[in-house]
Structures
1.
Amino acid sequence: MTDPPRPVPVHRHIWDRGPLPDWLTPDQYWFDRKQIVVRTPDSHARPMPGWWLIGWDNGWVTVCSPTMGEREYGPDGLYSRLAQAEESLARFTALYEAWVEAGSPPPGQPFASWWEARLWEMREAVFPS
């Protein structure tokens, strides 16, 4: 049994009381007097100026403070790091499959030099330059 696909954040907007982003649809928000109210999977949120609106590929919207937005969804945030880790894992898995297909070192090649080359390939897969 496979896990359902994990939702991915695809939009980011910092709310500044200005125009709303095009990806935010009318069924996802409304105005309560002058305050915007955003429908989230958990309840409703009233973002303050500077707060982040995060749009997901499944249609959800997340509202978070500037600190949480940068920490979770910023360029060095957890989601960016998770994406980098998943890319490294995919490269490593492809390398492993290529190694299994290639088999053991060719006859006459010293095992140590063959293994050293594999270690360099693995390092490049995990930590690309």
Note: Residues 78-126 form one domain.
2.
Amino acid sequence: MSMSELDISTDSAGKISFPDCPIMHFRAGRRLIQFVAQGVHVDGVGFANNFYAVRCASNDAISCRRYSDDMWHPLSPDDAGTLREICEWAVESRTLVFAGFEAHSGQWQEYTVPAFSLTGSVEEARPS
């Protein structure tokens, strides 16, 4: 597998997932989410155990919510904390929805990124 096969853009964002891949760095804001995962699976290519950087931007507001006490609670992406893993990743109608466990509370957290643009690529060295 070549590293270029792992380069992902918006059009192929639905082909990636992060099975059993810890999230090393995660930063979310109102219009931008960036993270580095310790691995990536690309449909039709396979699994790569490389540090994988994702940058996802939106011209619309990114929303976040956390599930606790048997209900969803809206959160500002700026204050939502970090994810320790991404368990669900889906693209439908130019909207990205992904979810996983928040790193400190362990609670389920979901992000919705409307009208998104995305790039994903292998990091040459482990991020600091």
Note: The chain has one domain: 3-122.
3.
Amino acid sequence: MESKEEVEITEKDVIDMIDFFTRVPPLMLKMAIKSNMNVVKSFESQIKEHESQLKEEERVKVEKVLEMPVFELQTILKKAYLKTGQKQLKILADPKSEAFISKNLKELKRVLFL
């Protein structure tokens, strides 16, 4: 089992979870970003339910993502977008999404680890 320090998050990880990113239509995602909406709070019960089903390897990856600088995460999202063409990934990779991502990662950390 790899430690958090040994785990690397790549565009393959994003692509493996593509369904998660494409559930929200691009227009709705843009609106959520523009208003800097706390989407984690809206889905808190589903997140907690899903968290209990995570394997240890998946849990380590989630922890790693929560500790990554947002610009690094956005670089990975951009690479995944270039491979898949999914608009939602392009939207999230845009520097204008940084505050939205940061806010929601902080909230996700609170939900999962408090």
Note: The chain has a mean pLDDT of 91.
